[in-house]
Backbone:
């Protein structure tokens, strides 16, 4: 039987099933007008939903471009339905039902599927993801040796660089740094350097096709696999330093950037520091967009340096700023 004939047959079966349900409902209301009609049996509803889901799937295969706009999404997997009884799911997940269906469509108590769907969902705001009852892929029995450190954060190459010794010279007198978060910290070099000074730094990063999280773990540090738009999973007013690495730049929408800065303010204690490290943007945007945005925080400017981004095709500039949260 051809694909078109099969789809037509399913449509016919769906129409017949719908008519049967309608006749069942009408016959029930005609026999007892004074009482409400009895509920439709569960097995009939289940059969109709199964037919609709099958038609939906076949139509997507036949014409995927138009099916997404006109048909309801695939029914959720049994594992997702089970999870929803235990815990809520991030609201943005409902905007990507097909991806969420793929993520939760697995065999319980077996190996988890090895794919990139989880990071795709996270980057679209579907975070935290639902928990699953499957095992992660096998990892080495012994952790790898520690990764070597580069000379970054030690010797300044330009006015834009703020080295760790300079940072401690500024902050150690009255505001010691003990706890910090590095936003978009790549392979965790900053956290590794700060560890040598007995400072605990948590690094947020996404892999994006490269093993950034694995590299951070090799260094004996904790990676947070979290997107920039996520609220930091940290309590209010407990950090001494928030560093924004190269991932925080003009590509982030302005409103999202504003929420990020104010979430940094939430987790910083009074007297703590916000460090924008080599933030790049266009000169006009720095003056008209980002300076007013930073000014809303009301922070004291400890360091403010700008310089040309030499590898830029759009005339961008770098900004390195160290800002101190006021005592309120």
Residues:
């Amino acid at each position: 039987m051809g694909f078109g004939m099969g789809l037509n047959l399913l449509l016919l079966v769906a129409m017949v099933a719908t008519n049967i349900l309608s006749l069942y409902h009408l016959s029930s209301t005609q026999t007892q007008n004074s009482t409400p009609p009895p509920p439709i049996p569960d097995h009939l509803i289940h059969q109709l939903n199964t037919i609709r889901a099958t038609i939906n799937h076949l139509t997507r295969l036949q014409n995927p471009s138009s099916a997404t706009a006109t048909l309801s999404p695939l029914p959720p997997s049994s594992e997702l339905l089970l999870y929803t009884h235990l815990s809520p799911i991030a609201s943005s997940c409902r905007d990507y039902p097909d991806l969420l269906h793929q993520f939760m469509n697995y065999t319980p108590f077996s190996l988890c599927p090895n794919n990139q769907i989880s990071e795709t969902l996270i980057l679209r705001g579907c975070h935290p993801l639902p928990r699953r009852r499957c095992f992660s892929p096998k990892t080495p029995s012994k952790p790898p040796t520690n990764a070597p450190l580069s000379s970054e954060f030690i010797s300044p190459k330009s006015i834009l660089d703020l080295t760790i010794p300079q940072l401690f010279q500024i902050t150690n007198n009255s505001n010691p740094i003990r706890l910090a978060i590095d936003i978009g910290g790549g392979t965790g070099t900053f956290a590794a350097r700060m560890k040598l000074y007995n400072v605990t730094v948590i690094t947020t990063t996404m892999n994006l096709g490269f093993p950034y999280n694995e590299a951070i773990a090799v260094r004996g540090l904790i990676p947070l696999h979290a997107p920039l738009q996520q609220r930091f999973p940290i309590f209010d007013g407990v950090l001494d330093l928030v560093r924004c690495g190269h991932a925080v730049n003009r590509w982030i929408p302005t409103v999202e950037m504003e929420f990020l800065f104010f979430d940094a303010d939430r987790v910083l204690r009074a007297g703590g520091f916000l460090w924008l490290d080599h933030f790049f943007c266009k000169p006009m945007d720095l003056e008209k967009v980002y300076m007013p945005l930073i000014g809303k925080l009301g922070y004291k400017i400890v360091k403010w340096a700008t310089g040309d981004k030499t590898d830029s095709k759009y005339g961008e500039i770098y900004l390195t700023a160290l800002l101190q949260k006021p005592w309120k």
In short: Residues 1-18+41-72 form one domain.
